[in-house]
Design brief:
Blueprint (H helix, E strand, L loop, with lengths): L1 E7 L6 E3 L9 E4 L5 H4 L5 E4 L2 H11 L2 E6 L7 E3 L4 E6 L1
Antiparallel strand pairs: 1-2, 1-7, 2-5, 3-4, 3-5, 5-6
């Protein structure tokens, strides 16, 4: 199965896509119970190598995801779970 995970920035409405972080090659997620400031601290990042693990954390645990803007090469943003959609493609 192929997963496409997109999110919309609540700040400016730009479209983002979940891809592995360039410097590490893994997906970066943050727990939903953390404050906005805590989500930005590296010590609070949750790293997963497998897309299925990322999907599980997003869908069942409500995790936020750091996602890249699909329109340009800006730094990735943390997208709130409520603005993330997971698509499953055959």
């Amino acid at each position: 199965m192929v997963y496409v995970i997109i999110g919309i920035s609540s700040k400016n409405g730009t479209i983002h896509r979940l891809t592995p972080m360039k410097e590490r090659g893994e997906y970066q997620l943050t727990a939903p119970h953390l404050t906005a400031d805590e989500r930005k601290r590296e010590v609070n990042y949750t790293w997963v190598a497998d897309i299925e693990d990322a999907v599980r954390l997003i869908e069942t645990e409500g995790y936020y995801a750091r996602m890249y803007n699909v329109e340009n090469t800006q730094a990735p943003d943390i997208i709130s779970n409520e603005f993330i959609k997971v698509f499953r493609l055959p």
